[in-house]
Amino acid sequence: MRIATMAALAALMASPALAQSLPHLPTDLSPAGVRAADDHLALEEVEGAEAMAFVAASNARALAVLTGDPRYETFRSQAFDILSSTARIPGPSFLGGGIGNFWQDATNPKGLWRRTSLDSYGTDAPQWETLIDVDALARAEGRDWVWKGANCLAPDETRCLISLSDGGKDAVVVREFDTTTKTFVEDGFALPEGKHRISWLDRDTLLIATDFGPGTLTESGYPYIVKALSRGQSLSQAGEVYRGDAGDGGYGVSPSVFRDGAGAIQAVIVSRPLDTFRAERWRIVDGAAQQLHLPARAGLHGVMGDRLVITIEEPWSPYQGQPYPAGTVLSVSLADLARSEKRLPPPDSNPDLIFAPGPRQSVADVAVFDDQLILAVSDNVVGTLQRAAFGQNGQPRWDASPIATPANSAVGLGDVSRGSGRVFVSTQGFLTPPTLNLLTSAADALSAVKSAPALFDASTHVTEQFEATSADGTRIPYFVTRPRDQQGPAPTILFGYGGFQVSFPPAYKPEMGKLWLENGGVFVQANIRGGGEFGPAWHQAALRENRQRSFDDFAAVGQDLIARGITSPRRLGIYGRSNGGVLTSVSITQRPELFNAAVIESPLIDMLRYQELPAGASWIGEYGDPRVPGDAAFIAQYSAYQRLSPEAEYPRVYLTTNTRDDRVHPGHARKFAARLGDQGHDYLYYEETAGGHSNDADPVANARRWARHYVYLAQQLMD
Predict the structure, then answer these.
(1) pLDDT at 19 over 80
(2) Beta pairing class for 398-403 and 492-495
């Protein structure tokens, strides 16, 4: 081990890493200067000859090390049994009075879209009716189809827009499907491959934002124009409804049609993103767009009558009246929101307060019904439920009351049937398999529908919650799932994400339990800043120039684990994917002495060029814009690709990504691996050729993926 004594470890943990040469950190941080300093630009060509040669050579080396390990086949088989288990709870969605489900197993690896009745769904052996066999469709059409969902028109939900991806990309083709005939509609709505934003307006009209031709996409590759597409029209014939600007940020303009329980339209609202998190909202009335004067950071949940239900994600004092803190759930008059700034409504038009979270709380989700709301509320990263209704006991206000949920669990809202007043609710924990519940608007308690069986032996482990103190004194919560009779430091995986206001509550991870916990490992989940565990402020504390706080939080958890004796640097590894790839790559370059393994999956890493790689520019609100000198300066302080040093002693890392990933460009992982090799550092790199960013192509490929992960982690931390 690199660190010989506890005194040396303490000294390293108490001070920054020693200064090292950084030969690839540009002195000129302009885009041209960054490009000139990059000797691996060819690896950004997704299917370029040099890139594919690098992938082939790297894959051969990685597979020899990982699949050649005697544990690989056991891990692969165990993971596949879990991912294809017929004992899993079929994820339900309300579909035309019944229940729809998309299902993958050993016989149907690409999956079946199917339906049954609610009564049948609640039995041990539901009678399923197949609507679409994706495996058969892929064979018939000679395409690598991956299911990406169905969008069905309320209230009868017999006409659905089916999204299919070729190879797992985010970009999809869309086809209209009739659930009564179980066939695609001849001459129905059909859209070519693209990153579409679609809502049904009526049976013969779609509101759509997509690629309408040259000059209709932002620099991130997302649409900024909404059109109404009538049945029988081509995209070129669709009539424009709303237009943003080519310079808009974020993920593209998006139309939403809000309906009541009977399917009647209550409001049509277009969201125009200004950057990753800030947006304008425009209501479409009689073909004209009216701006809604909402805060730029706000989440829209639904419409009740003439009022919009929102969560504000920044402090707001509407109409020069009462101030509301970020994270508050409000009901706001649509008519008042649409008033001109010069014609403010009277002071008594202030929004109705629905729920104000406490300092260690956040609202994770909201289900909107015609007469009430159901709120999933995180309380110190543990799930709870609240029911909110207006006018209880004749009082003109909103009142919230708790609904009992299991202690120390994650609580998630599933699909909502506004017409029948039902919502699915899931509960689970690290060691507790999911239970699927049904909650109705008239019930006071959850009603269990299905409980998943245990897919690994949880009796050997216990879950605890601790807190670490970050560099600036902030308390950072984290969960530890460890052997009940642990004696001394154990092999430990530390997982983190820390971005985009995404929360990570306790969740059942059966492949991790089977492949890691059952073999004596420890799993740790760090709820660092940048996430949404404690609301918008927790996220915004680590934006842009404050990104270092996320990295400090993660390191603090690692240090706390070592101080508690749960693990040691020799036995501590980290795992992160996507934005978590920023976290793990930076953690390795900033604090290599803390860790002996890192799984860096589908990562962002080159943060001085990320905006050049599709769809990077959509995340400028999160990270900053490297084209702006001030932003480039703070990004250069952590961007791991430029801060690799030949003098440092890094653990052997495992980088993995996907050629078909059109969300986070594979060039990030390729270039980092190549530079590690250039500097003489050991690494493993594997690139899957299908599946996309979501890794949802099929359980066969996913089982291989998890087996590679855990073989590597076992080699680094257990051997």
Answers:
(1) no
(2) unpaired
Reading the block at residue 234, the tokens are: 């081509």
300: Cα within 13 Å, side-chain hemisphere: 27
Check if the beta carbon of residue 605 is closer than 8 Å to that of residue 582.
Answer: yes
**Across the chain, what does the average pLDDT equal?**
94
Where are the alpha helices (H) located in 318-388, listed in sequence order?
334-337
Comparing CA positions, the residue from 675, 713, 664 lying closest to residue 170 is 664
Give the tens place of pLDDT for each residue, 194-208. Answer: 999 999 999 999 999
Is 1's pLDDT higher than 70? Answer: no
Residue 557 phi, psi (nearest 5): -65, -45
**pLDDT of the residue at 2:** 33
> Does 693 qualify as catalytic in the annotation?
yes
Q: Residue 113: exposed, middle, or buried by beta-carbon count in 10 A (0-12, 13-18, 19+)?
A: buried
Provide the β-strand partners of residue 26: none
The predicted model scores a pTM of 0.94
Report the alpha-carbon distance of residue 608 to residue 679 in Å, rounded.
20
Does residue 7 have a pLDDT over 90? no
- Point out the catalytic residue in the list 196, 301, 668, 693: 693
Question: Can you tell me the distance from the alpha carbon of 257 to that of 199, in angstroms, rounded to the nearest whole number?
Answer: 6
Q: What angle do CA 76, 79, 85 make, to 5 degrees?
A: 130
**By CB neighbour count within 10 A (0-12 exposed, 13-18 middle, 19+ buried), where does 444 fall?**
exposed
Backbone angles phi, psi at 682, to 5 degrees: -80, 145
- The helix or strand, by DSSP H or E, that contains position 586, with its residue range, turns out to be helix 579-590
CA distance 232 to 463: 57
Q: State the SS3 of 552-582.
A: HHHHHHHHHHHHCCCCCHHHEEEEEECHHHH
Which residue in the list 58, 271, 550, 578 is annotated as catalytic?
A: 578
Contact assessment for residue 684 and residue 623, using Cβ atoms and an 8 Å cutoff: no
pLDDT higher than threshold 50 for residue 702: yes
Q: What percent of the chain has pLDDT over 90?
A: 91
- Can you tell me the distance from the alpha carbon of 606 to that of 589, in angstroms, rounded to the nearest whole number? 13
Q: Which two tokens stand for residue 266?
A: 């209550």
Active-site residue 578, yes or no?
yes
Helices (H), 306-414: 334-337
Percent of the chain with pLDDT over 70: 96
Q: In what order do the strands lie in the sheet with 288-292?
A: 254-259, 265-273, 279-285, 288-292
pLDDT tens per residue across span 157-202 = 999 999 999 999 999 999 999 999 999 999 999 999 999 999 999 9
Per-residue HEC secondary structure of 507-539 comes to: CCCHHHHHHCHHHCCEEEEECCECECCCCHHHH
pLDDT, tens only, 224-239: 999 999 999 999 999 9
